[in-house]
Amino acid sequence: MFYDAVVIGAGVVGAMTARELTRCGLKVCILEKENDVAMGATKANSAIIHAGFDAEEGTLKAKLNVEGSKMMPAVAAELGVKYINNGSLVVGFNDEDKKTIEQLYTRGNSNGVEGLRVIGAPELRELEPNISPDATCALHAPTGAIICPYELTVSAIGNAMDNGAELKVNFEVIQIKVSEDGYEVSDGTETIETKIVVNAAGVYSDKISTMLGDTSFKVHPRRGEYILLDKTAGSLVKHTIFRTPTKMGKGILVSPTVDGNLLLGPTSVDMEDKDDKDTTQAGFDKIISQCGETVCSVPLNKAITSFCGLRSVGDTGDFIITSPRHGFINLAGIESPGLSASPAIAKYVSEILNAQGFNLKEKEDFNPIREKMHSFREMSAAEKNEIIKKDSSYGRIICRCEGVTEGEILNAIRTNPKPRDLDGVKRRTRAQMGRCQGGFCMPYIIELLSKELGIPMEQITKSGRKSAVITGRTKEDYIND
After folding, report:
1. Which pLDDT tens digit goes with each residue over 434-443?
2. Which residues contact residue 218 at a Cβ distance below 8 angstroms, ignoring those fewer than 6 apart?
3. Has this prediction a pTM greater than 0.85?
4. What residues pair up with 120 in beta bridges, in sequence order?
5. Average of per-residue pLDDT across 410-426
6. Partners of 262 in beta bridges
7. Is pLDDT at 247 greater than 90 in this prediction?
8. Residue 382, exposed/middle/buried by CB under 10 A (0-12, 13-18, 19+)?
9. Which long-range contacts (CB under 8 A, 24 or more apart) does 126-129 make?
10. Which residues pair with 3 in a beta bridge?
């Protein structure tokens, strides 16, 4: 089949780009090598919309961060995704930290960040009573915010699909060829023809680019480990609390999430293995130590899970957005603040394509609106009762920890982009994200997925590939013995 554009990678940058190209009236196909969307760095990051004071002046990071941050409230509203403008604080503990904070203040103003202030210890403690007594100053960025990155990605791809885009999962690109009409993209089994290719493959973006002979950059993964605390700990701080940054990143943060949890992390360790997402004791020790230095009385006994993400770090120190061939665009090295910049990156792609003569114009009947993924839980009791009268499945609680109903899970399974595994359902509904981490609800979700997908329960996985949950039926094995 022939497409106007193929987007390789279904993370937040690929999702926003696909949505933007669909807005421009293009026939778009999104290719993802995993079993679902948002499976790379998008599902395991700090969930921060950065104000834009950290990136160096004149870089694409600075420009697109500030633009994307300003765009995000409207984008989140259109896509039905929670966005909380909680502000951020970069906390200092000594004279050296204060110098860094003053530099960030100057840089942020140069980048066009609004409302920045350097504040002293008294005001800092008014804003955050649980901050360490050793803290002496902070940079206050009122435009900082928090969001759910995988919900944003699911909704953006779903909105693109609502407007005509197609999604192919388990499609690992192994070859790209130049053709008479553009490009041929293949996974070894299926070949897709397209005029435009957008490479948003994260830590594998350099590998994709070399398929067309472009070896101008390299990307390596940077490990970031996190600890997530229960909602009972979510009110410990209101702002996103940063340490003063280093060349390895913005340091260990303490931040509330849009769903009321408390997030600690990430670590920052350069890696070679692009698939190693193991957590480490050394990483946890560092998180625990630094969080304890920044915020008082972090209730680590409320930890409910931990995870690791791999950031895509390029060798240029900036976002790598290049077009080595007509109609082929690299979106590589999109590390932090990539989430914040993603809507602006998508716009930037359309500008590049227009400059190459593709003449993109907004589609008149493009529908930017996407229904909220968690609308049921936010309804009044009367509204819930009305829905339950029409569909009794909304009256059956499946996930007790998060209060997720059978109706919500069924709706998620039936809505594009459709999940095919347990983690896919988790990202769309929050079922399995509570205190018990799926200990109670997992068997019920497996049964629902099995019925809806029309496949045996043994074929339902946690996250695709070799992540089987059930290996066989015990009664049948007993009889065969």
Report:
1. 989 999 999 9
2. 206, 314, 315
3. yes
4. 137
5. 97
6. 229, 256
7. no
8. exposed
9. 127/89, 127/238, 127/239, 128/89, 128/237, 128/238, 128/239, 128/241, 128/295
10. 194
Region 376-392 average pLDDT = 93
Cα Rg of the chain, angstroms: 23
Does residue 278 register a pLDDT over 80?
A: yes
Read off the pLDDT of residues 288-303 as tens digits, 9 standing for 90 and up: 999 999 999 999 999 9
CB 342 within 8 A of CB 65: no
Burial-class residue 418 by CB neighbours within 10 Å (0-12, 13-18, 19+): middle
- Paired with 29 in beta bridges are 6, 166
Strands 328-332 and 262-265: unpaired
Q: Beta-strand (E) ranges in 96-164?
A: 117-120, 137-141, 145-147
The β-bridge relationship of strands 28-31 and 166-168 is: parallel
Poorest-pLDDT segment among 37-51, 65-79, 132-146, 244-258: 244-258
Task: Measure the CA–CA gap between 426 and 307, rounded to whole angstroms.
Answer: 15
Helices within 43-148 (DSSP H only): 60-79, 95-111, 121-127
Q: Which of 83, 101, 82 lies closest to 92 in space, CA to CA?
A: 101
Candidates 311, 306, 298; CA nearest to 256 is 298
For the segment 139-191, what is each residue's pLDDT rounded down to a tens digit? Answer: 999 999 999 999 999 999 999 999 999 999 999 999 999 999 999 999 999 99
Point out the catalytic residue in the list 50, 220, 239, 374.
Answer: 50
Domain 376-480, what fold?
Arc Repressor Mutant, subunit A (1.10.10)
User: Is 326 one of the catalytic residues?
Assistant: no
**Encoding tokens for residue 98?**
């204060």
How many whole angstroms separate alpha carbon 406 and alpha carbon 112?
46
As a whole-number percent, the residues of the chain with pLDDT over 70 amount to 98
Return the domain boundaries, the chain. Answer: 376-480
Whether residue 416 contacts residue 168, with contact meaning beta carbons closer than 8 Å, is answered with no
Q: Identify the pLDDT of residue 465.
A: 84
What whole-number distance in Å separates Cα of residue 3 and Cα of residue 471?
39
Compute the distance between CA of residue 227 and CA of residue 288 in angstroms, rounded to an integer.
9
Picking from 59, 20, 1, the residue whose alpha carbon sits closest to that of residue 329 is 20
Q: Are 32 and 171 in contact (CB under 8 A)?
A: yes
Rounded percentage of the chain residues whose pLDDT exceeds 90? 93
pLDDT reading at 18 higher than 80:
yes
Q: Contact at 8 Å (CB) between 136 and 93?
A: yes
- Sole residue written with tokens 């690299």: 330
For residue 351, what are its two tokens? Answer: 């500008």
Give yes or no for a contact between 349 and 329, defined as CB atoms under 8 angstroms apart.
yes
Show the tokens assigned to 474.
């015990």
- Contacts with 377 (C-beta within 8 Å, 6 or more apart), sequence order: 403, 404, 408
